[in-house]
Write the structure tokens for this entry.
Amino acid sequence: MQIRLAQAMQADSIVDGEGIRTVIWTQGCSHNCLGCHNPETHSFDEGILKDVDELKQELKSFKNQDGITLSGGDPLFQIDACTEIAVFAKSLKLNVWCYTGFTFEKLIQMAEINPKLSLFLKNIDVLVDGPFVQQEKSLNLKFKGSRNQRILNLKQSLKKGKPVVLKKYRDEKKYIVNNGEEKHLYL
């Protein structure tokens, strides 16, 4: 099986999820979010083809990595290859983060039709979901580009059937109510 990548795997990333990570940049995305920081990954015809078994051996050779991050593009457009990679990463005791322009709610609907998607989701630890929205962009957010995106504990989300945001990555907005009391709103 082959996977279309936007570039070679990148080891030792500290900005694409928690810890020291290897990032797999998939090629192909139809979300075409205005202001996307990876617009060169949108085309489904560009990038490089790589054999998944080769990629797995390369992944196995990297040392001192806490996990992998599937990003791109959108990894969900190459579900078979990305599932195989996620399952392999779990066998190496690596945690798996995935960035997608789809929301958790949409993925649950899609998984009802496509059982391969269910298997993929079961092998993801953290899902950063939702499209990048230019109007919600903030450079103060950790591991995401816009406030509408969520960093989800996917195991808990699947178990509860609703999105469970990792508390340490919730966005906090402070506001004052009529009586002058300070309130906090977590997004």
User: Anything to note?
Assistant: The two ends are 39 Å apart (CA to CA). DSSP finds five helices and ten strands in the chain. Residues 79-91 form the longest helix (13 residues). The beta strands are 2-5, 10-13, 21-26, 48-51, 67-72, 95-99, 126-129, 150-153, 172-176, 182-186.
